[in-house]
Amino acid sequence: MGLQRWGKIPETIFVSQWVARGVPRLLASYPQKDLDPNLIIDIFGLILREEEEPREGFYIVEYPEEAAFSRQYAHRNFVCYFSGMELRQLVGLILEKGEDPEPYRGALVRVALRLFRRGEIPTAEEEWEEIWSQILAYTDMPIELRIADIFRDFEARMILSIMVEEGVLTLDELIRKAREKISYPITRDLLISYVYVLSALGILEVRFDEKALIERVYLISDVVFYRKKPQKFDEIIKKFPSVKEIYIQYVSDYIATWEADAEKIPELLSNSEIYPLIQKFRQEGAIEESRLSPSDRAIAERLKEENILVKIDNTYVMLVDPAYKLLFPKWTIAKLVEKAKEDTTMRDLLKNWLNVLKEAYLRRR
């Protein structure tokens, strides 16, 4: 896959490492491979203007007018994500002049998460091209795919389940609880990266509490993956009346198993080969086998095995639509309201959380 297929794109992705008593190191950059390591020192310098050492999370810094590389980079944005002090890695994107950094936040942290999980810096050209393509594709990816993509991972599902139970936690409390529930060794930095992916998606929000000098995590939305009635269902049963009985029986069985089944939905929705065909069935409801390419027929057969489609004669018909829904966390709020009746500290946390929720939902309007 050649890079020329993309339109306007960032200049370069880089991976660097913070050295507490030394000079930050450039570990890799792509597609510009001869990036000056001194530029990375400048970026860390901009990040450290307000802090003695970098904290985990996002940084968007603008290169100043009067610095060593101002001729090339003045007023250009650098979108960066710092892993934390276990891995001490900074993954950053150098944007072209005038590019908005916001669309790249989710893409950057998702790629950073993959790099951290990998445990080593890629060396092959093909690996870097795949990473670069992921960044570019992520910015155009529908929110449905982005959410499905992260919830393929057990760690993301565990973090959300803890937050649905608690509503508000310090970042340290959340990481401790997640580590207790995950049966295999996992670094703090990796778990924190999941928190920031979920934050970029608007599911959680991380804020620094200046009074307590700690970072708190707030639940913004619960997420449910489920199978729903297709939008074209009425048209489908007019043309294929037998589908109605099949659907009624399926729903009767599905109600008892939907929670266990929910883990399958992210795998289907986040698959770049399957998703376009799901979209096609959403639009048309039913498609004759003869209209599908050999590769699409193979995908349709898989969707049939997953009980998303049924086959009536020579036509594939959508039985259920794999979907997700963001839910306002009213049940979690109700639990905290009960706790706050006896606990004044909890009252303050609840008040702060409700303000954060109000701001988050106003931004969505």
List the topology elements.
Blueprint: E1 12-17, E2 25-30, H1 37-47, E3 57-62, H2 70-73, E4 77-82, E5 89-94, H3 104-118, H4 125-140, H5 143-150, H6 154-166, E6 168-170, H7 171-181, H8 188-200, E7 204-209, E8 214-219, E9 222-228, H9 233-239, H10 242-254, H11 258-261, H12 264-269, H13 275-284, E10 286-288, H14 294-305, E11 309-312, E12 315-318, E13 321-327, H15 330-340, H16 344-364
Helix pairs in contact: 3-4, 3-8, 6-7, 15-16
Relevant terms:
single chain; 365 residues; alpha+beta; globular
What is the average per-residue confidence, as pLDDT, rounded to a whole number? 91
The count of DSSP E runs of length 2 or more, i.e. the number of strands, is 13
H/E element order: EEHEHEEHHHHEHHEEEHHHHHEHEEEHH
Helix content: 40-55%
Strand order of the largest sheet: 2-1-5-4-3
Structural class: alpha+beta
Please report the distance between the alpha carbons of the first and last residues.
Answer: 38 Å
The major beta sheet can be summarized as: 5 strands, antiparallel
Low-confidence stretches: 1-7
Overall morphology: globular
Strand content: 15-25%
Distinct helical segment count: 16
Oligomer: single chain
Rounded Rg: 23 Å
Model description:
This protein has 365 residues and is of the alpha+beta class. Helices cover 48% and strands 19% of the residues. The protein is built from 16 helices and 13 strands. The chain has helices at residues 37-47, 70-73, 104-118, 125-140, 143-150, 154-166, 171-181, 188-200, 233-239, 242-254, 258-261, 264-269, 275-284, 294-305, 330-340, 344-364; strands at residues 12-17, 25-30, 57-62, 77-82, 89-94, 168-170, 204-209, 214-219, 222-228, 286-288, 309-312, 315-318, 321-327. The strands form four sheets. It has a five-stranded antiparallel sheet, sandwiched between helices. It has a three-stranded antiparallel sheet with strand order 6-8-7, with helices on both faces. A three-stranded antiparallel sheet has the order 10-12-11. A hairpin with a 2-residue loop joins β11 and β12. The protein is globular. The two termini are 38 Å apart.
